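[Meeting: bench + compute handoff]

Bench side (C.D.) handed over the final construct sequence. Compute side (W.E.) agreed to return the predicted structure before the next meeting so the bench team could plan truncations. Sequence as handed over:
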Amino acid sequence: MHLSSYFDRQRTEDFIMFSPSHWIALSIITLVCILFYSLRFEIRTDVRLRQSVRLLLIIILLFSETGLQIWYLSQGVWQSSSSLPLELCGITLLLSVIMLITRSRALYSFLYFAGIGGAFIALLTPNLVYPFPHFRFLLFFIAHGGIVLASLYMTWIEGYKPTWKSLLFTMLGLNIVAACVWIANYILGSNYMFLSHKPSTYSVLDYFGPYPYYLLVEELFAFIVFLLMYLVFFWVPEQRKSRRKRISRIPY
């Protein structure tokens, strides 16, 4: 097969969810996250290595969005109604770049939940039609994996942690973002963030009922996912650590 076919907008096959290539992509991202976690102390204590990892993540994220825009333009399919970075993951990708550059705690409070949570759902149920090894397939998983790693970097390397206020801040921020995107949709006649109708490909929204009720269910679903992300990875471990400290202080 000619190399250009991996970049061309025409395709002979469609992406199949939970196909071997999908599972392999998910497995690679999972393994990278595990490796990242296992090396967190080495990265954290080496200033040059920490800066290099942060710069690499910034480059990966910028390459992902720039590559996508170049692909749209090169294939003559760029449209304001579908090609702007106004999907949730497009927004969190750009915000992740700013967060990594500025080390903003406010952005981290939002992106730990909205970035990781949104990218995780997108990775499980991709709004994608191009199969492996097409450029769009590779770009999709690199971009969404990069969004996850950006917030994990701030957590594991920079030592940032979300709070209960972060959860409420994220829900408020998401609604503000959705309101702005809704206005953009009205002006552009678009469907960014699927605020006007569900995507044409399979997604978790298929279980949330018809329009506009799925938007309310989606918000409840997001809150539950974010709550579990906080409870499982922060609140429960901190409670266990606090309990062990209290027990260790009890005289025998």
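W.E. noted at the follow-up: Helices lie at 20-38, 40-45, 47-74, 88-102, 105-124, 135-156, 164-188, 213-248. C.D. will use this when planning the next construct.
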